[in-house]
Write a structure and sequence with these properties.
By secondary structure, the chain is an all-alpha fold. Helix content is 75%, strand content 0%. The chain has nine helices and no strands. The protein is globular, with a radius of gyration of 18 Å. The two termini are 13 Å apart. It is a multi-pass membrane protein. The chain crosses the membrane at residues 29-53, 65-84, 96-118, 130-153, 176-201. InterPro entries: Caa3_assmbl_CtaG-rel. Keywords: Cell membrane, Membrane, Transmembrane, Transmembrane helix.
């Protein structure tokens, strides 16, 4: 029952990110675009993955070789940083096909990382959890680094026309987006890694971690 609730909540957050006002605001507000990113990879993806983990719809059970936590985190690192290159970021904010591609890739790599850490067969959960800690902490570190770079930059990295009547400068807008990434993006993955670590420490070596 709890897993079903998490799955439904994750799908609702995904709908809020994509159907709500954020896509329209993101065209002129970097913070809104970053809000979409954070909602997808740090809220919707973990809830959906944990809601499906261990069940019939868990892809890590059927294709475990594709859901190795550390390689999955490296794939997410590459995808996230590529989309934050100024040219691709600008294209995603001003082209609907590019926005759809960007958001779909964010969801895909987010699910990849969270399924890698929390999914798979129960008899392999201890080993997967150990690797999952490393994968989630690596992701937390690179998202924290990205957030710090955006928040502390002394010039706008993503020039854009501000919202009509908006009081924020492009630099302030970017700094808010960096804080969102730093606070919500990095901390969610850190919390996931610490949860797996705590679970691992509570378990006997021959027992599978309870989820």
């Amino acid at each position: 029952m709890t897993r079903r609730v998490l799955l439904i909540l994750g799908l609702l957050l995904l709908a809020a990110a994509w159907i709500g006002p954020l896509p329209r605001l993101a065209r002129h507000a970097f913070a809104a675009h970053m809000g979409m990113h954070v909602l997808v990879v740090a809220a919707a993806a973990p809830l959906i993955a944990i809601g499906l983990a261990g069940g019939r719809c868990d892809p890590a059970r059927r294709l475990p070789a594709l859901f190795a936590p550390v390689p999955a985190s490296v794939v997410e690192l590459v995808v996230v940083w590529i989309w934050h290159a100024p040219a691709l970021h600008h294209a995603a904010r001003h082209s609907l096909p590019m926005l759809l591609l960007e958001q779909a890739s964010y969801l895909a790599v987010g699910l990849l990382v969270w399924f890698s850490a929390f999914g798979g067969e129960r008899r392999q959960m201890r080993e997967r959890s150990a690797a999952g800690i490393a994968g989630l902490l690596l992701t937390s570190m690179h998202m924290t680094l990205l957030g710090v770079l955006l928040a502390l930059a002394d010039r706008p990295l993503y020039p854009h026309a501000p919202l009509a009547g908006g009081e924020l400068t492009p630099l302030q807008d970017q700094q808010i987006g960096g804080v969102l990434m730093l606070v919500f993006g990095g901390s969610t993955y850190l919390a996931g890694g610490l949860y797996l670590l705590a679970t691992l420490l509570r378990e006997k070596p021959d027992a599978a971690p309870l989820r």
